[in-house]
Amino acid sequence: MPTPLKRRGSAVALLAAALTAVAACGGGGGAGAKPTAARVLNVATTASVTTWDPVKSFSSEIFYMANVYEPLLWKNPPGSAEPFRPALAESWESSADKKTWTFKLRRDVTFHDGEKFNAAAAKASVEASQERAGASFIWAPVKSMETPDEHTLVFTLKYAAPMDLIASSMHGAYMVSPKALAAVESDDKHFENGTGDGGSGPYKVAEYQSGKQVVLRGFDGYWGQKGAFPTVVAHITPEAVTQQQMLQGGQVDIATAVPLENIGQLKADPNLDVQDCATASNHLAFFNTARKPLDNPKVRQALSHAVPYDDIIKVGGEGFGSKAYGPVPQGVFPGSTDVPTYPYDLAKARALLDEAGVSGLKLKLTYAAENQAQKRFAPLIKDSFSKVGVEVEISPLLWNQQWELGKGDPAKAQDIFLVLYWPTYSDAGADNLFSLFHSSDEPFFNLSYWKNKEFDALLAKAGTFTATDPDKAKAIYTEAMELLVDQAPGAFLYDVRAPLVGVKSIKGLTCHPDYAFNLFFDQLAAR
């Protein structure tokens, strides 16, 4: 997961805001109004669209994509009786060594463009993702694929891997019509403006106005249970205050990004349902280890002690956050509270800077201008660092500008890079730890530019046990995170919680940390 662009070809690393929008077309209903079964569902969102190509997609358009396209499996929420549920695969099994996975596919699925879903279509979708997906890395374990019959897809892997997790990924795992895949090969603008729909999901893109509105309409030929709302209108509304006004004014039924400081007021409204959602996202600060004196671990440790963690959660997250134990959010594999943390200790910070012989240090900090939480807490870092003699210049940049700066020459890049990151699927060892801190000569998202062979070796070793012995994998990953925290190429700020607010006349509005940036509209209904 990141801030609007993410790892290895992504368009997310993360995104600074990202969820979704609302509309008031076709029916009003706001607080307290009881929607009729046929009326429009209005949603307010911050989710902009970087691409409509379901293969390349790696950013906040996931909010819409997850209703238009489907993977082989969906991951169930934590606490469910089963970890996964069928999507376009009816059943699946693996060999004892987790190197061969067989998926039995649905026989009754038609893509929106009339093409039939079958094993050949599934294989072509994975091949397209391997070749050009923003999240192509998720398919790295795949050695080969076979289609022994029209409705069976068999994966042979290079090493044991959790293909059920991979097949349920939020990015890079959608099944796409062969006709659409062929069309985009000859015309890279095939999906532009929402046209060229190659999905099989419950909704189709009916209208798209860049930066303003997305209209989804139910797909009459959908294989599964159709949604209660035949039309969903999402107005792309970056301003949290405006989203709240739209919700309380009756223009929308759901708001995905309201002002955090007003949650208490919204909870007191008897017509609203406010949920405090766990997410798989967290904030961290990269230190530029390629530049002196940040190449010295003692200096990075000093800065880590000078970060006011509790105040950052209180002010930046308005309390919607919890202590971070490394770059893996709690509740996501291989998150562990055994990972050490840095206490806020200015005396220790000063002592470490003195030991390193550093004084009069001046640093440039960048953050994504779209990210309101980072806008709130960046000044707290500046003020606290000043207390240990470190001067910080804050530079807000649009996410894409910040990301391009970070990917450039480290000698000309920022000293401190704030980022919001989340894993592509529920394995933050294969994603967060690897994406953010694995050694690379051309870092895609390791924007601390840190290189450590011992850390790399621990990640490689842990990954071989994820599918066969997850407890052993977690123990090795924890050892890697202990090394990471000790060397401090970044400071780990907090794990994010996010409120989701809707009118009580809508039922089915629930949180799902594995798909924290998604709303599944077919699962919503009128009370």
From TrEMBL:
InterPro entries the UniProt entry points to: Peptide/Ni-bd (IPR030678), SBP_5 (IPR039424), SBP_5_dom (IPR000914)
One BP annotation, GO: peptide transport
Pfam family, one: SBP_bac_5
SUPFAM superfamilies listed in its UniProt record: Periplasmic binding protein-like II
Entry superkingdom: Bacteria
Domain Solute-binding protein family: 84-428
One GO CC term on file: periplasmic space
UniProt-recorded name of the protein: Peptide/nickel transport system substrate-binding protein
